[in-house]
């Protein structure tokens, strides 16, 4: 199994280009199941989750053609299977995103129930309840969600109990072909949800309230095809900025979406980072200084993203002062803490909060990646630690970071893949 061997410490300097957003491209690829004509998606990142989605769509009969320059053409005019098998769903929870499009266009779907995962139990009850409100009959048997609606989905007024990103996306994709006007209240406002909504509008969906907590969707009979460029990945961008801040370095990121990064940039300014922006470029410069500790409390967008929490914990581990980091979105998202402690971090875990007393140096150690963003925090820790860090189970990081060794190497890190 591949591992990453990092020899530190390194101070990061240089510039990298940010890829398309994982959490935007996955729902958009799923949404092409709704389209009766071929669609081309541009700026598709090279990620394991994208390959898994392509495999899933291909197994259903979607015709996929890889283009030059990170584009994929998808033609869902001959879908022959409506099933997402366990083998694929178990490696990628986002497979649940095919439920809404399959039900909306074909009136049936069989999707393996995603299990729990390292960051919490992560139920999909809100997806299922929402589909039922839209008229689907759903049974959950032998680990599968069996859904059908022979006469088509009907509009509904749905209030989500908890803000859910993929739940909102699934219901949005279902509602675009439902008869009548649906309302989705307490909808997630994450930029990736907005990107999906914009994609749906570009193929003929009628959606208002995009970017707000209330989405109004007037169902249409069919959706066409289009060419669409995916949003830039704010979590990938944030990860490189935090890595640079933790290493007292300076980086320039190209092709970023600045609006989606605001909360993270504000927190990085609090560390003492000098940040300048121009167009779709952002530069962070620590002027060689250690970052100051910053408190974080995660919340749905526009709050501080849970997907950036682990990286900030790694940075706080070497910051000046003490930081309090509170995780409000997932119940068990501190698996990186024990690994960072093994590298010399002074972190105390209390319920859903960690208290981090910054130390001057971390020490390299063998560590285990437990989930995608936890792995990113361990890579950051490895870059700033003295000596060798061997990050095991990096298949997690390959799910969500395009060419991370190449990009980190370009910034001056000493990092290589070993088996
Ligand atoms: C998405 C992102 C993930 C991010 C998360 C929160 C994708 C592919 N993944 O995950 O990177 O960390 O949003 O920003 O976009 N919940 C329920 N019932 C449900 C659905 C969710 O109780 O039916 C709860 C979850 O357990 C969690 C909270 O709602 O506590 C938010 O989860 P949710 O927004 O659904 O996360 P995902 O969409 O799975």
Structure report:
The protein has 14 helices and 24 strands. The protein has helices at 22-31, 48-59, 86-89, 99-106, 125-133, 165-175, 191-202, 234-246, 258-270, 309-316, 335-342, 372-384, 395-400, 404-410; strands at 3-8, 13-17, 39-42, 63-66, 72-75, 83-84, 108-112, 137-141, 144-148, 157-159, 181-185, 206-208, 214-218, 227-229, 250-254, 274-278, 281-285, 296-297, 322-326, 346-350, 353-357, 366-368, 387-392, 414-418. The strands form six sheets. A four-stranded mixed beta sheet has the order 22-23-1-24. Strands 2-15-17-16 form a four-stranded mixed beta sheet, with helices on one face. Helix 6 links the parallel strand 10 (157-159) and strand 11 (181-185). The mean pLDDT is 96. Uridine-diphosphate-N-acetylglucosamine binds next to helix 1, helix 5 and helix 6.
Level of helix content? Answer: 25-40%
Distance, first to last CA: 6 Å
Characterize the overall form: elongated
Q: What's the β-strand tally?
A: 24
List the defining traits of the structure above.
419 residues; alpha/beta; 4-stranded mixed beta sheet; elongated; binds uridine-diphosphate-N-acetylglucosamine
How is this fold's topology laid out?
Blueprint: E1 3-8, E2 13-17, H1 22-31, E3 39-42, H2 48-59, E4 63-66, E5 72-75, E6 83-84, H3 86-89, H4 99-106, E7 108-112, H5 125-133, E8 137-141, E9 144-148, E10 157-159, H6 165-175, E11 181-185, H7 191-202, E12 206-208, E13 214-218, E14 227-229, H8 234-246, E15 250-254, H9 258-270, E16 274-278, E17 281-285, E18 296-297, H10 309-316, E19 322-326, H11 335-342, E20 346-350, E21 353-357, E22 366-368, H12 372-384, E23 387-392, H13 395-400, H14 404-410, E24 414-418
Parallel strand pairs: 2-15, 3-14, 6-7, 10-11, 18-19, 22-23
Antiparallel strand pairs: 1-23, 1-24, 3-5, 4-5, 7-9, 8-9, 11-13, 12-13, 15-17, 16-17, 19-21, 20-21
Helix pairs in contact: 1-2, 1-7, 4-6, 5-6, 6-7, 8-9, 8-10, 8-12, 10-12, 11-12
């Amino acid at each position: 199994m591949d591992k990453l061997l990092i020899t530190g410490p390194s101070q990061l300097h240089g510039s990298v280009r940010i890829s398309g957003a994982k959490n935007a491209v996955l729902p958009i690829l799923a949404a092409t199941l709704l389209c009766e004509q071929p669609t081309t998606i541009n700026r598709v990142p090279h990620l394991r989750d994208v390959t898994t989605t392509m495999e899933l769509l291909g197994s259903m009969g979607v015709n996929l053609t890889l283009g030059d320059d990170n584009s994929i053409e998808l033609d869902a005019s001959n879908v022959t299977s409506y099933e997402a098998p366990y083998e694929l769903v178990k490696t990628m929870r986002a497979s649940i995103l095919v439920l809404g499009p399959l039900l909306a266009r074909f009136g049936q779907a069989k999707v393996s129930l995603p299990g729990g995962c390292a960051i919490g139990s992560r139920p999909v009850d809100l997806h299922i309840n929402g589909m039922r409100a839209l008229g689907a009959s759903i049974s959950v048997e032998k680990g599968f969600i069996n859904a059908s609606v022979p006469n088509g989905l009907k509009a509904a007024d749905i209030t989500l109990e908890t803000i859910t990103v993929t739940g909102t996306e699934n219901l949005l994709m279902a509602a675009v072909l439902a008869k009548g006007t649906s309302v989705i209240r307490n909808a997630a406002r994450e930029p990736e949800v907005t990107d999906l909504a914009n994609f749906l509008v570009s193929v003929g969906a009628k959606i208002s309230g995009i970017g707000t907590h209330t989405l109004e969707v007037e169902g249409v009979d069919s959706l066409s095809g289009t060419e669409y460029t995916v949003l830039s990945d704010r979590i990938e961008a944030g990860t490189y900025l935090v890595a640079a801040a933790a290493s007292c370095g300076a980086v320039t990121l190209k092709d970023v979406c600045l609006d989606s990064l605001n909360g993270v940039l504000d927190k990085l300014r609090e560390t003492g980072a000098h940040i300048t922006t121009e167009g779709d470029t952002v530069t962070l410069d620590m002027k060689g200084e250690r970052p100051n500790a910053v408190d974080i409390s995660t919340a749905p967008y526009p709050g501080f993203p849970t997907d950036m929490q682990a990286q900030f914990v790694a940075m706080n581990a070497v910051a000046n002062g003490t930081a309090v980091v509170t995780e409000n979105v997932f119940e068990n998202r501190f698996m990186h803490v024990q690994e960072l402690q093994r590298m010399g971090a002074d972190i105390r875990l209390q319920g859903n909060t960690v208290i981090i007393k910054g130390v001057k140096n971390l020490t390299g150690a063998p560590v285990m990646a437990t989930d995608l963003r936890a792995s990113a925090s361990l890579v950051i820790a490895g870059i700033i630690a003295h000596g060798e860090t061997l990050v095991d189970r990096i298949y997690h990081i390959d799910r969500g970071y395009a060419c991370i060794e190449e990009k980190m190497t370009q910034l001056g890190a000493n990092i290589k893949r070993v088996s």
